[in-house]
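REQUEST FORM: STRUCTURE PREDICTION
Request ID: SP-0412
Submitted by: Lab K.M.
Chain count: 1
Length (residues): 219
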Amino acid sequence: MILIVDDEFRMRRLVSDFLKREGYEIIEAKDGKEALEKIDEFHAQLDLILLDVMMPYYNGWEVLKRVRLKYSMPVMMLTAKDEEYDQLQSFEHGADDFVAKPFSPMLLVARIKAVLKRTASDAPAISTDGLFVNREARRVYLDGEELMLTFKEYELLTYLQDNANIALSRDQILDGVWQYDYFGNLRTVDTHVKQLRAKLQAKGEYIRTVRGVGYLYQE
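STATUS: Completed
RESULT:
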């Protein structure tokens, strides 16, 4: 199920009709307040949220911040302009991807499929010194308490674990985690690493900075 959040009726209907033709189940919200209500009601069924930035009551950034306090489903921002600032704001607020308006419906579907494809995993669970990663359920626990990671934070953690003890450049991480050509600022990697380290608390030191290169995961 995909939740489309946009205050423009025509935009919601356009995206909804196109995604329904692709076989997706759709629900809609016209503003930030209704979005939060729908998310609380349907969070167990939601596979992804398409979230506009400029809306009444709560804007997209505020909705995203509130969502990230409770849930970890993927969120794709619908930004008004294809500018670096909007892209960085999307990632820094915990979004997993973004699409700039006006966008091609085919591109939107391709990005959605790429995100949803990466949610399926049959890899085994990994447990190390209190950090438990259940890859089948896509859940992460620290000392028995579940961590509410965003989609991209989870992808980043598992990618680093899969390449443990290897110094990875930011370009390699972008290619490995985002899995499409990204022409924005490499700061998005640093932003996600910073957020992931904070959530991992003491285990955040597993992600080490390699000066002049990028990052290395070492337990």
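NOTES: The CA atoms of residues 70 and 183 lie 31 Å apart.
Reviewed by: T.R.
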